Amino acid sequence: MGIWMSLVFVIGLVIIHLTSKQMKFLKVEPRSKFLSVAGGISVAYVFMHLLPELKEYQEEFDETFQGLQFLESHIYIIALLGLVIFYGLEQLAKNSKRHGRESGEYKASFNVFWIHIGSFALYNAIIGYLLLRGEYQSEWGMLLYFIAMGIHFITNDKGLRATHKEDYDRYGRWVLAVSITIGWVIAAFTEVNILIISVLSAFIAGGVILNVMKEELPEERESSFSAFFSGMLGYAILLLFL
Questions:
Q1: C-beta separation of 41 from 48 below 8 A
Q2: DSSP sequence for 120-187
Q3: What is the pLDDT of residues 71-98, one digit of tens each?
Q4: DSSP letter, residue 68
């Protein structure tokens, strides 16, 4: 049942990438409150589910590699690394877009586009892999993961489209849709060590935190604190009950 349920969810994530441009509720001016709700849900999932899970992974790692004191916080270091990498990529894309604006392009350069999309393709492949191979206590857990990542993808799509314009619609969304599928296919035929799962989960946790905060914090985003808080609180309560 798990593999078929995860396949349905992968198809759902692919559809989100391919149709997000047609989601009219995202075009509300000023910024759609849905995006702030989505950010709150994604953050709630990271702090209520992923980070506690990382603690369990850290304990397993410590038991496996006893005596390696310098690795006693390796899981959190990887989460931090995920955050830093995506922050660096975001700055690279912003600087490129700024230079493009000066020459009348109003988007990041084509080379930076592929670097940026390549990083998100890896990000998506990991999410697709964890959809099937993540540590879920029940099928409800997989459903909650799908919901959190699905709305996170909607937010990511809007940000990437704003940075790369038609390049994202022509190439980017297809690359990201395919990468999710590739991650799931690898998971369907390969089961890796629990320590690798822990590393992937930590990297995703750091990436999600940065990608949510970069959309919510800048003043020009016109974010809604009440919508963000409502999404965060509602999903946190749901996670507590389920």
A1: no
A2: HHHHHHHHHHHHHHS--SSHHHHHHHHHHHHHHHHHHHHHHHHHHTHHIIIIIHHHHHHHHHHHHHHH
A3: 556 778 888 999 999 999 989 988 888 8
A4: -
Token pair recorded at residue 28: 């509300």
CA–CA distance, 68 with 62 (Å, rounded to integer):
8
Q: Tokens 């690798």 identify what position?
A: 196
What is the C-alpha to C-alpha distance for residues 234 and 27, in angstroms, rounded to an integer?
24
What per-residue confidence (pLDDT) applies to 28? 53
Q: How far apart are alpha carbons 89 and 119 in whole angstroms?
A: 8
Of 88, 111, 109, the residue nearest 97 (C-alpha): 109
| 12 phi, psi to nearest 5 deg | -60, -45
Q: What pTM, to 2 d.p., does this model score?
A: 0.85
Measure CA of the first residue to CA of the last residue in the chain; give whole Å. 19
Spatial distance between the Cα atoms of 19 and 30, rounded to a whole number of angstroms: 21
* Domain ranges, ordered by start, for the chain: 41-65+73-241
Q: How many CB atoms lie within 10 A of CB 8?
A: 9
